[in-house]
């Protein structure tokens, strides 16, 4: 999943550095992820993983790192399966 | 809801506001305008001799600047564009016919180069950018504009056409943050001199849609916007009468604003909702300013 996330991040994150240089736990906002790019990222993740991220997860923490994004996607998938 | 209608009705009955038949678009009486003029004088006395450059904007702005600002990314639901008839005589005849029939006559209206100004500081940034890098120490502006937001409401504190007075600070991050912090204190003091109950709270702008939910949460998480709230229609939901905004480098990078050192400028603004503040005064002290407490009248220079 993290490889998919990296591909989406490279395409939509608008980061000034290559995604390859960013570790899974690195803070993406520090790396240059803007608010507007985080919106693009959110929509790209929803499209790729066929999920709808609920309102309570639409915050900075959910997209703060590749690890955090993976957790967010997993949590949404688990929630959707349970529903 | 009933309270809102009754406040609006009281304002109409007293003649302070005059109904135009469109929610949120009202004419103002001389008394209402006198309060706004007096309040603007009070702002200037509180601000002191800052050397801020004074600019007053008309209610419309350059459409290209509006487009460049990114407003439509965030608030498409609030924007108002100016469209005009640009057709030939035959088109004109068709327009008259449609109007007479009561059918849609606006189809042939074309977007003009003007957009209604959504916030007083939007027309400022491209003007400042055109002048080149900021002087050392940055810049401070004292601006005012009529603003438009498409949000019809019978709450008199949510007008569609209203005036916003602002101070806008451009410069290094630490300077613009210090400016905003000072005004959060000054704002409370200023409203306190008018004997109005205030609270300051973290806030967010009305970003559109689900993507907007993320932007709202981001804005709150980063403490980018605070509002000074005064009860007007409701104690439970007091009305934002001032706002204190830190834009980080959003406008700086959008418009290529540079500090004297060549860094991207950061910006912050403090805004006064002039009609809302007048309404708060009328609500708290009564509809006749001659009967307001002596201390309030004195603060306003009466």
Automatic annotation (TrEMBL), chain A:
One Pfam family it belongs to: PP-binding
Coiled coil feature spans: none
Domain Carrier: 1-77
Database matches in Gene3D superfamilies: ACP-like
NCBIfam families per record: PRK07081.1
Name the UniProt record assigns to this protein: Acyl carrier protein
Automatic annotation (TrEMBL), chain B:
Alphabetized GO MF terms: aminoacyl-tRNA ligase activity
Transmembrane segments: none
InterPro entries in UniProt: aa-tRNA-synth_II/BPL/LPL
SUPFAM superfamilies, A to Z: Class II aaRS and biotin synthetases
Keywords: Aminoacyl-tRNA synthetase, Ligase
Domain of life: Bacteria
Name of protein: Seryl-tRNA synthetase
């Amino acid at each position: 999943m993290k490889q998919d996330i990296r591909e989406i991040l490279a395409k939509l994150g608008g980061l000034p550095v290559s995604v390859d240089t960013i570790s899974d736990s690195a803070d993406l906002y520090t790396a240059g992820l803007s608010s507007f790019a985080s919106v693009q990222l959110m929509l790209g993740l929803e499209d790729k993983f066929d999920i709808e991220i609920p309102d309570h997860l639409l915050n900075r923490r959910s997209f703060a790192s590749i690890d955090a994004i993976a957790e967010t996607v997993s949590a949404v998938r688990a929630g959707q399966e349970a529903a | 809801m009933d309270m809102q209608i009754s406040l609006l009705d009281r304002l109409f009955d007293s003649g302070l506001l005059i109904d135009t038949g469109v929610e949120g678009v009202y004419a103002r009486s001389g008394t209402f305008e006198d309060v706004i003029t007096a309040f603007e004088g009070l702002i200037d006395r509180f601000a002191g001799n800052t050397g801020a450059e004074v600019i007053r904007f008309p209610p419309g702005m350059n459409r290209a600047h509006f487009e460049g600002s990114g407003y439509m990314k965030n608030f498409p639901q609030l924007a108002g564009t100016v469209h005009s008839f640009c057709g030939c005589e035959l088109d004109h005849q068709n327009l008259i016919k449609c109007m007479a029939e009561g059918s849609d006559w606006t189809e042939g209206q074309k977007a003009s180069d003007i957009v209604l100004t959504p916030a007083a500081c939007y027309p400022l940034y491209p003007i400042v950018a055109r002048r080149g890098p900021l002087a050392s120490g940055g810049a401070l502006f004292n601006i005012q504009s009529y603003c438009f937001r498409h949000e019809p409401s019978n709450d008199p504190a949510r007008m569609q056409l209203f005036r916003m007075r602002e101070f806008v600070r451009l410069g290094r991050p630490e300077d613009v943050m210090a400016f905003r912090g000072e005004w959060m204190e000054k704002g409370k003091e200023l409203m306190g001199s008018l004997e109005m109950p205030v609270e300051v709270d973290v806030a967010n702008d009305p970003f559109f849609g689900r993507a907007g939910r993320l932007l709202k949460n981001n804005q709150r998480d980063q403490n980018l916007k605070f509002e000074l709230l005064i009860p007007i229609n409701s104690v439970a939901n007091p009305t934002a009468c001032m706002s204190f905004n830190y834009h980080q480098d959003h406008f700086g990078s959008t418009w290529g604003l540079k500090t004297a050192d060549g860094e991207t400028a950061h910006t912050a603004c403090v805004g006064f909702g002039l009609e809302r503040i007048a309404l708060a005064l009328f609500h708290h002290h009564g509809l006749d300013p001659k009967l307001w407490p002596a201390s309030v009248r004195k603060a306003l220079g009466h």
